[in-house]
């Protein structure tokens, strides 16, 4: 996300549990679709931050797909994330990411 705030030539952006921004002034120059994937039990990125980010994107009419997986912690899609990893949700998130990238990059 930080790259998209300073770069003006991207085609798409995918986010897996990174820090979010809801400042409309910082987000307003984004002119490409965003896929954001988070867990609702993420202690590093609270679901309230995800919803604030989503609301900011809606207000700015930035195309987006936002998915929040229930009962998932930070790192749920990464196999070495000890107790957080969920193979089923990781595979689902990966499929969503591939579909998003196929749609917007090909």
Instruction: Return residue spans where pLDDT drops below 50 for at least 5 consecutive residues.
Output: none
What overall form do the CA principal axes indicate? globular
Strand residue content: 15-25%
Helix-strand pattern, N to C? HEHEHEH
Distance between the termini: 21 Å
Oligomeric nature of the chains = single chain
Mean pLDDT: 94
The counted number of beta strands is 3
Largest sheet: 3 strands, parallel
Helix count equals 4
Rg, Cα atoms, Å: 14 Å
- Helical residue percent band: 25-40%
Order of strands side by side in the largest beta sheet?
Answer: 1-2-3
**What structural category do the secondary elements indicate?**
alpha/beta
Write a concise keyword list for the protein shown above.
106 residues, alpha/beta, 3 strands, globular
Layout: helices, strands, pairs:
Layout: H1 2-6, E1 13-16, H2 24-27, E2 34-39, H3 47-59, E3 64-69, H4 87-105
Parallel strand pairs: 1-2, 2-3
Describe the 3D structure.
With 106 residues, this protein is of the alpha/beta class. Helices cover 39% and strands 15% of the residues. It has helices spanning 2-6, 24-27, 47-59, 87-105, and strands at 13-16, 34-39, 64-69. A 3-stranded parallel sheet has the order 1-2-3, with helices on both faces. The longest helix has 19 residues, at 87-105. The two termini are 21 Å apart. The model has no long low-confidence stretch (mean pLDDT 94).
């Amino acid at each position: 996300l930080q790259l998209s705030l300073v770069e003006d030539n991207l085609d798409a952006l995918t986010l897996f549990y990174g820090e979010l921004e809801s400042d409309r002034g910082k987000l307003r120059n984004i002119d490409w679709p965003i896929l954001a994937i988070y867990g609702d039990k993420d202690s590093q990125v609270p679901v309230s931050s995800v919803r604030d980010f989503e609301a900011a994107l809606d207000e700015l009419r930035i195309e987006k797909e936002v998915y929040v997986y229930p009962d998932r912690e930070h790192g749920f899609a990464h196999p070495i994330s000890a107790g957080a990893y969920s193979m089923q949700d990781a595979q689902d998130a990966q499929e969503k990411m591939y579909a998003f990238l196929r749609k917007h990059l090909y």
